[in-house]
Amino acid sequence: MLLMEAGDLQLTASGSRTEQLFHAIRHKIVSQLWPLNGKLPSTRQLAQELNMSRNTVIAAYEQLVAEGYIESRQGSGFYVAVALPEQFVPDVVIKDVQTKAMKEPHLQRAFRPGVGDFEAFPYRLWQSMLQRHSSRRILMGSHDPQGLPELRHALSDYLASSRSVSCDPSRIIITSGAQQALALALLATLSSGDDIMMEQPGYTQMRAIINTLGYRIKPVPVRPISGLDLDHVLKQQARALYLTPSNQYPMGTTLNTEQRLALIQWAQTNKSWIIEDDYDSEFQFAHRPYTSMQGLAAKIGLDQHLLYVGSFSKILFNGLRLGYLVVPSKLVDKCVMLKNVLTGDTPAHSQAALADFMMEGHLLRHIRKMRRHYQTKRELMVEALHRYLGDKVDIISQAAGLHITLRWQTGITEQQWVEAAQKEQLMIRAMSYYDEANFATRGWHGVVLGFGNAPLEKIDEDIRRLAKAFVG
Ligand SMILES: Cc1ncc(COP(=O)(O)O)c(C=O)c1O
After folding, report:
1. What is residue 308's three-state secondary structure?
2. Which residues, if any, are the signal sequence (predicted)?
């Protein structure tokens, strides 16, 4: 039997005598200077050696036993415990609580696409909604992975009135952002190796999901101003078609009713799925938005091939991570099963707060306010672009959403402009970011500028700086 010696046991300077002894012995054990099964000095012996009361030593030993560092063997004494807690629960020292993402200020830089105006968010109101639900015990347990019924009801009313989406609450699945809704839509409809047509250029995140899940992308060209190459789709077959029909991302084009109907018919004929991503349709500035494809298909009884995806990221804020998927009744069980397998239920407090926010009319008021606000920002941005860049670039995107897409032919490359903008602390996206690799090259350069988070009073000056960086 290995006997441990008090030896050079160093008491720490702070804390009570018991705590000092506890930490000194713990240090010996954790650094394995006192090995497993080593016998500790008796409490009487240690008290004598360290010139402290026996009660102090007993208290320290009891604490060490309670935390699993040592064990008491009846009639024999105290031993270093077999199971070293630190082997399983290492001391984690969080040196710097700032994560990499928090340190990256450019995440919120002016002109970053896809970010709303957080300054205009009704914080107080939102806080009161959250607070109202924060102590509800019922919300603390697990919930239906499909989403809270009250939120699905509120959403069903909202989608029916604003986008003519045909869905009773039983067909809605609340997801962690549109991102998860898109993944669920793919998993519920496709098998490994299936092909899916997707807009080119298109939403990069969707491309990443499709590739990661092992499906094959068939790119469909989207042209400046005229938009999706409809004939290209109609001539082909694929298990699914992914579209952003109300505000094509990133080209900012839209499909009219006739084009939407042609695609719905194509899906019916080919028994293909359509995944409609309606991520920012609330913000249409020039005309009333077209009815959603899902709503249009439902009117003619053809919505059994349509999956509709939406998000609260643009109308509220990205960090809320709430989105939704509306599916034909026959896909509900499969989607809920997949949602359950992937992440289980969605945080209940945010869902409950959002349901109230919608039912009490705050969401519609907020959207109306933000529509005017974003329209003003867009107009200022367009004026400034004309002022500082003249006819060097064309605006090719419609007056909608939270971004403006620019095109030009010669001079500076899109990558060079992105880098020059970065030096000005501005963030713009090269069109190539949205391109399918190996797809035929465009004959023009393009960038996408978000105006959602650009401070109103700085738009003119920021565009002036951006234009200076454009040495075309
Ligand atoms: C085309 C498109 N779909 C969906 C989303 C929304 O994604 P999420 O709800 O996951 O934030 C975005 C966000 O930028 C988008 O650009």
Report:
1. strand
2. none
For the stretch 91-124, pLDDT in tens is: 555 555 555 545 555 566 889 999 999 999 999 9
Residue among 75, 78, 93, 73 at smallest CA distance from 28: 78
Residue 297 has pLDDT above 80, yes or no: yes
User: How many other β-carbons are positioned within 10 Å of the β-carbon of residue 124?
Assistant: 8
- Rounded to 10 degrees, what is the CA torsion of 30, 34, 37, 43? -100
The confidence score (pLDDT) of residue 26 equals: 87
User: Which residues have a Cβ under 8 Å from the Cβ of 300 and sit 6 or more positions away?
Assistant: 261, 264
User: Which of 317, 313, 282 shows the shortest CA–CA distance to 120?
Assistant: 317
User: Rounded mean pLDDT of 342-353?
Assistant: 97
Phi-psi region of 91 (alpha: psi -120 to 50; beta: other; left: phi over 0): beta
Q: With CA atoms as reference, report the closest residue to 387 among 327, 445, 463, 310.
A: 463
Q: Judge whether 25 and 14 are in contact, CB under 8 Å.
A: no
Cα–Cα distance for residue pair 430/438, rounded to 1 Å? 16
Q: Are strands 195-200 and 172-175 parallel, antiparallel or unpaired?
A: unpaired
In sequence order, the β-bridge partners of residue 276 are: 243, 308
Residue whose CA lies nearest to ligand 1 atom number 12: 279
How far is it, in rounded angstroms, from Cα 425 to Cα 357?
35
Q: Quick: pLDDT tens for 35-61.
A: 888 999 999 999 998 889 999 999 999
Ligand 1, pocket residues at CB < 6 Å:
114, 177-179, 203, 244, 249, 277, 279, 311, 313, 318, 323
Cα separation, 349 vs 389, in Å, equals 47
Between the CA of 401 and the centroid of ligand 1 the distance, in Å, is: 12
pLDDT in tens, 234-289: 999 999 999 999 999 999 999 999 999 999 999 999 999 999 999 998 999 988 88
Among 280, 350, 448, 451, name the best residue to mutate to test ligand 1's pocket (greatest count of ligand atoms within 8 A of Cβ).
Answer: 280
Q: What is residue 240's DSSP assignment?
A: E
Q: Name which of 85, 400, 53, 148 is nearest 252 in CA terms.
A: 400
Torsion angle of the four alpha carbons 374, 379, 380, 381, in this order, in degrees rounded to the nearest 10? 90
Tokens of 202: 């298109």
Classify residue 202 as exposed, middle or buried by CB count within 10 Å of its CB (0-12, 13-18, 19+).
Answer: buried
- 404-428: string of b/e by CB count within 10 Å (b at 16+)? bbbbbeeebebebbbebbeeeebbb
Query: What amino acid is encoded at 425 in this protein?
Result: Q
